[in-house]
Write a structure and sequence with these properties.
650 residues, alpha+beta, 12 helices, disordered N terminus
């Protein structure tokens, strides 16, 4: 009955949209929560977010100030839910002057006598981890976590001089019983919103006069109940693109003379504002001590493309990326001197040197794939999390990102491909779509092998990795979770764990304009029985598990770019073996020819030549197209399992 009463309590919250006054007090346990064994809409959940509340207050006094109070309470059902008891709160402390204060955290549980125990996380257990000069993280873990316990934390965040309002993510990786978001702001500040994953939302509005400044404040409260957990799917665009949420934007109104000059084009307003910001536009033309010799050398280069490549390489070699993704620079002169900087430091340096060398280029505000898609109709700088450099001429357009160490300037970065970006140059202030018609995930393998009398394959191989495939291959040794997710876009991955490899020669590691090459010799023992020998045509590759086994899909498919894989395997067979079975030649294609798999196998004298080719010609598929894609990959993976069978002669 206690579970039912709790359900009724939260149903009342949903209907009335009342404020948090009916929630349990901070630091006070609730018997019904501790007795809860499961919840109807999330019976299999290892943990459940009982409620989360967020109150955001915007004040305008010599600049904007945003104060956020956040509170979260979580029920942990099983040991699998213990991960929910490790909390990380990241924030950018240097650029925006952000502070996190008033942190409180409690754990509630029943002891062996069913007495309620309340423990407060001590201040000494809450850590501030300074990841770099700008990013700080609050970290803590609840003590004595056990199945059945309830944990709770709250904190206050203050931001100064920020035009960015963080979204209200009411959906997360835990099912959520109740979520509410309240935003309060002076009436003269216009705030717009957009919804993701929902068509409408419950909103309560009111206005009141401020007790301190006597201004009229508008307040809106949004609430949602019984929110299912987010379940990622293979090859989805990104988590940020698909989480259900509400995004907010502070509009650049009331800018007086600037508005009179530019009319209602708000993006031109943003470009004009950014051009005067010291952390952005004021970096475009400023001298960078130590670059004089580089600029002198660049000006002697006649070819425009060679000049671009030269300066791009100089910046990548000079400044190491600190893994901070932002469009706010610290100071490019300092970054050059200290040889390290965030993404904006690096790319503003690229833009600066290109412009001073006479190359016309533009600052391009981007949202990386992990950050989510942008919307030109939603006027918010908060959509962006990075700055790249755009070069446009009569022959070609280039998007440069100096954080991509092995990326050619001729290849658009993988993390912004097929996405809208904003050219923040005041003369243009327009949106561009970043695309490329080439197969940027491209790998070609050629193998020449001989089967020995005792059934061992020996030979040499030559592999070429192009564009994004080269970047992924070069990063393999320092792979991170983000890079693993990128690799999942590529169905075939080099894997030598079951082979003997020798005499490896790697080429073009220092030249971004050429494909990465690997040449090596190998020995490989195919599987055998007393009579038969089985050769896998893809023995130098391991196919990942078919990612499209689910019968239903909720999100669109994103392959990042066009893909192309070709393998040519030439095998010489000794006289004591003969062919028992060759997989048939076949062409498998989608009805619209968007995906193709082709296999050609034939025997010529004592040789077998096997050529396989896979092409993905459309990088993006809507969820409604999933059944056709699933059927194609089921058939393709079945074909891939077919092997060449040889029989030993008597």
């Amino acid at each position: 009955m206690k579970t039912i009463s709790l359900f009724l309590l939260f149903s009342i919250f949903q209907i009335t949209g009342n404020s948090q006054k009916k929630l349990p007090a901070v630091g006070k346990a609730d018997q019904a929560e501790l007795d809860m064994k499961e919840y109807p809409f999330a019976k299999d959940a290892s943990a459940l977010k009982l409620f989360e509340t967020e109150e955001k207050e915007i004040t305008a006094d010599y600049g904007l100030k945003i104060k956020t109070q956040r509170r979260v309470r979580i029920k942990i059902f099983t040991q699998k839910g213990f991960d929910a008891a490790t909390i990380t709160v990241p924030y950018i402390s240097k650029i925006k002057g952000t502070k996190i204060t008033n942190i409180d955290a409690y754990i509630y549980y029943l002891d062996s006598t069913r007495k309620i125990v309340t423990e407060k996380v001590s201040k000494s257990q809450i850590y501030r981890d300074k990841a770099d000069d700008q990013l700080t993280q609050i970290k803590f873990t609840f003590p004595n976590v056990r199945p059945g316990c309830v944990i709770e934390y709250r904190y206050e965040k203050t931001e100064k001089n920020s035009l960015h309002l963080e979204p209200w993510y009411f959906q997360g990786f835990l099912p959520t019983l109740y979520s509410t978001f309240t935003i309060s702001h002076p009436s003269q500040i216009e705030i717009t919103r957009r919804l993701f994953g929902i068509d409408s939302i419950l909103v309560n509005s009111k206005s009141e006069r401020g007790s301190v400044d006597n201004r009229i404040y508008l307040q809106k409260t949004y609430s949602m109940s019984n929110i299912i957990a987010f379940e990622p799917e293979p090859m989805m665009t990104s988590i940020s693109d698909n989480l259900k949420r509400v995004e907010f934007s502070i509009q650049p109104n009331g800018l007086g003379f600037l508005k009179m000059m530019l009319g209602n084009n708000k993006w031109k307003m943003y470009a004009s504002i950014l051009s005067e910001v010291p952390l952005f536009g004021k970096q475009f033309e400023k001298p960078i001590p130590g670059t004089e010799a580089i600029l002198d050398s660049a000006k002697k280069i006649v070819s425009k493309e060679e000049k671009i490549n030269y300066l791009f390489q100089q910046v990548k070699n000079q400044i190491k990326w600190d893994n901070q993704q932002t469009f706010y620079s610290g100071d490019i002169a300092t970054a050059w001197q200290e040889r390290t900087g965030n993404s904006a430091d690096i790319n503003l340096t690229v833009l600066n040197l290109l412009r001073r060398a006479g190359i016309r280029c533009y600052p391009l505000l981007v949202s990386t794939r992990n950050n989510g898609q942008t919307d030109p109709e939603f006027f918010s700088l908060g959509q962006f999390n990075g700055l790249d450099v755009l070069i446009i001429d009569s022959m070609a357009s280039y998007v440069l990102d100096g954080t991509r160490k092995y990326q050619s300037y001729k290849t658009p970065p993988e993390n912004v491909l097929n996405r809208n970006a904003f050219n923040a140059d005041t003369a243009y202030a327009n949106w561009v779509f970043i695309s490329d018609t080439r197969p940027l995930l491209k790998t070609i393998l050629s193998v020449s092998a001989t089967l020995s009398d005792n059934g061992q394959l020996q030979g040499d191989a030559f592999v070429s990795f192009y564009d994004h495939s080269k970047v992924i291959r070069m990063d393999d040794k320092i792979i991170t979770r983000e890079e693993e997710e990128k690799e999942e876009k590529e169905f075939l991955k080099k894997d030598f764990t079951d082979l003997k490899i020798d005499s490896v020669v790697v080429g073009n590691t220092e030249n971004d304009l050429l494909p990465l090459t690997e040449k090596f010799v190998f020995s490989y023992q195919p599987s055998t029985t007393d009579k038969f020998l089985y050769i896998d045509p893809f023995f130098l590759f391991s196919f990942r598990k078919n990612p499209f086994s689910d019968s239903v899909r909720n999100y669109c498919l994103d392959f990042n770019s066009k893909q192309y894989l070709k393998t040519s395997v030439n095998i010489t067979i000794p006289d004591n073996y003969e062919i028992d079975y060759l997989p048939p030649n076949t062409i498998l294609r989608m009805a619209d020819s968007s995906i193709l798999f082709e296999r050609i196998i034939y025997k010529q004298e004592n040789k077998i030549l096997c050529v396989n080719k896979m092409e993905i010609l459309y990088p993006l598929f809507e969820k409604e197209e999933y059944p056709d894609v699933k059927e194609f990959f089921n058939r393709m993976y079945a074909m891939i399992q077919e092997q060449i069978i040889l029989i030993r002669k008597k």
